[in-house]
Amino acid sequence: MIADSLLKLARFAVVGFTGLCIDFGITWFCKEKLSLNKFVANTCGFTFAVVNNFILNRIWTFQSTNRLWHLEFARFAGFALIGLVLNNLLLWFFNERLHIRFYVAKAGAIACVFAWNFLSNFLFNFH
Q1: For position 126, what pLDDT does the model report?
Q2: How far apart (Å, rounded) are the C-alpha atoms in residues 2 and 96?
Q3: Which residues of 31-56 are buried (b: 16+ CB within 10 A; e: fewer)?
Q4: Which residue windows are transmembrane per the record (predicted)?
Q5: Which positions ≥6 away from 40 have C-beta within 8 Å?
Q6: pTM (global) more than 0.85
Q7: Average pLDDT of the chain to the nearest whole number
Q8: Does residue 46 surpass a pLDDT of 90?
């Protein structure tokens, strides 16, 4: 049980890293090339990463065989929306209040929200 949970945590982290790359890439493109507001750009990156992470976590991390995948996605997206609110609040706090550079602040916010994302999906979504 513990070994299985640790394996899932490790896989979740690997999937999270792929999502992080997608998130940062889309955020950078939207902010720097399309000149979107930094919080809008952050939301775009986050959204693309959520779809990627759902697919990979469903198939590889949690190996879900639930035929009601749309309900799993709805829960995953709901947990992700809570994570997005936390992410944007932390990003705002780190960047605007603590004056940490935007992408460093974004990395810090992602690291803080990681625990929420894993526990919510491990305990309530893919079980």
Answers
A1: 86
A2: 40
A3: beeeebebeebbbbbbbbbbebbbeb
A4: 12-30, 39-56, 76-94, 103-124
A5: 30
A6: no
A7: 93
A8: no
